[in-house]
């Protein structure tokens, strides 16, 4: 099933009916929110409160156990003081509902949840100071550390074999690389994949394991003002890419996404690493692999976004948000090389950490 075929296309009237039937509320305000392959709506009932109705794509909606675990994770983090959304129970006490839409043989089922709405501005819309980058790195490490304590009877579903967005799946990009035919950047992507197989795969046993959020990006992090010129993190969104992985994966993903809108992208790594290591210091193998893993995430974003646009050409603007800028950053990091980038990142991190 293609992404285009699996993404929901609910109307405002359908959302209004879902809220009335499942939660007993009357919608007074509704507006669409962006999403990669699901469908999200901001909903304000006349009874009060602000929420996000999330309809999962039909492909993921088949994996109810995984969505249940993601929902449990959000509640678990919220209970431990991290700013994650929580799911509201329906009138029958369930945290999600499998809804059917369409006509006769074209019926499709979508898992629907109503989540708390977290106020704030996405990190993508602010100018990130070194301090907020430090806080983002610290929050990413804190999240993964807290998740080490989580227990659940179905936690094994996070062993998502061949999940394309996990950094263990970088070699799987080879099956999509044709979408870049004719683009000179394809050579860089191929070289990065090859280096991953040579340099990173052998180090995997030395990386420390954890559960990854997997999409700690500038559109999934909310901040709110903290004084005249500072911000604090007010929300962590979208746990759809959760999987078992490694601490170093989360750090690499975080650095990559924090680079996207930054006017000095190469300088981002230092404060993010400093914040991360204030919670979870890197070992030698992790530190030696960070540069290449950041490149790998850029490659994943670029190749998979191009592939998604083929499936959803009408959603190109949103799908290519990261990839359009990311291709320049990928090439710049590749040109600078591992030694120079590591020097910038780790020297900056050491200076940032000094009292």
Automatic annotation (TrEMBL):
Q: Does the keyword Cytoplasm apply?
A: yes
Spell out the GO cellular component terms annotated for this protein, sorted alphabetically and separated by semicolons.
cytoplasm
| Enzyme Commission number | 2.7.1.81
Q: Which InterPro entries match?
A: Aminoglycoside_PTrfase, Kinase-like_dom_sf, Pseudomonas-type_ThrB
Pfam families noted in UniProt: APH (PF01636)
Subcellular location as annotated: Cytoplasm
User: Which Gene3D superfamilies does the entry mention?
Assistant: 3.90.1200.10, Phosphorylase Kinase, domain 1
Where is this protein primarily located?
cytoplasm
Q: Provide any one GO MF term from the record.
A: hydroxylysine kinase activity
Top enzyme class: transferase
Q: Catalysed reaction per UniProt? A: (5R)-5-hydroxy-L-lysine + GTP = (5R)-5-phosphooxy-L-lysine + GDP + H(+)
Residues of the signal peptide: none
Ranges for domain Aminoglycoside phosphotransferase come to 30-265
Q: What's in the keyword line of the UniProt record?
A: Cytoplasm, Kinase, Transferase
Task: Briefly state the protein's biological role.
Answer: Catalyzes the GTP-dependent phosphorylation of 5-hydroxy-L-lysine.
Q: Which family does it belong to?
A: Belongs to the aminoglycoside phosphotransferase family.
PANTHER family assigned: AMINOGLYCOSIDE PHOSPHOTRANSFERASE DOMAIN-CONTAINING PROTEIN-RELATED, HYDROXYLYSINE KINASE
The molecule here is called Hydroxylysine kinase
């Amino acid at each position: 099933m293609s992404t285009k075929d699996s993404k929901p296309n609910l109307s405002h009237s359908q959302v209004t009916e879902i809220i009335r039937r499942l939660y007993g509320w009357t919608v007074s305000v509704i507006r669409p929110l962006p999403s990669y392959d699901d469908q999200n709506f901001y909903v304000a009932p006349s009874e009060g409160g602000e929420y996000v109705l999330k309809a999962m794509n039909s492909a993921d909606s088949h994996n109810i156990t995984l969505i249940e675990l993601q929902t449990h994770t959000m509640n678990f983090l919220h209970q431990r003081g991290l700013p994650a959304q929580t799911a509201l129970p329906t009138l029958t006490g369930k945290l999600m509902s499998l809804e059917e839409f369409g006509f006769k043989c074209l019926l499709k089922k979508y898992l629907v949840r109503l989540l708390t709405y977290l106020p704030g501005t996405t990190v993508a819309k602010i100018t990130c100071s070194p301090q907020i980058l430090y806080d983002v790195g610290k929050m990413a490490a804190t999240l993964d550390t807290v998740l080490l304590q989580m227990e659940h009877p179905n936690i094994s579903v996070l062993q998502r074999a061949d999940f394309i967005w996990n950094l263990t799946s970088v070699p799987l990009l080879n099956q999509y690389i044709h979408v870049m035919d004719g683009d000179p950047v394809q050579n860089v992507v191929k070289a990065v994949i090859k280096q991953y197989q040579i340099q990173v795969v052998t180090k995997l046993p030395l990386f420390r394991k954890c559960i990854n959020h997997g999409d700690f990006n500038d559109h999934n992090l909310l901040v709110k003002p903290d004084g005249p010129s500072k911000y604090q993190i007010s929300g962590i969104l979208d746990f759809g890419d959760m999987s078992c992985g490694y601490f170093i994966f989360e750090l690499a993903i975080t650095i990559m996404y924090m680079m996207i809108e930054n006017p000095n992208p190469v300088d981002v790594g230092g404060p993010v690493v400093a914040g991360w290591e204030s919670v979870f210091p890197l070992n030698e193998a992790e530190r030696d692999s960070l540069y290449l893993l950041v490149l790998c995430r850029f490659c994943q974003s670029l190749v998979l976004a191009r592939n998604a646009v083929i499936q959803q050409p009408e959603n190109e603007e949103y799908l290519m948000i990261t990839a359009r800028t990311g291709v320049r950053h990928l090439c710049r990091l590749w040109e600078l090389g591992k030694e120079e980038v590591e020097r910038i990142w780790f020297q900056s991190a050491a200076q940032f950490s000094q009292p």
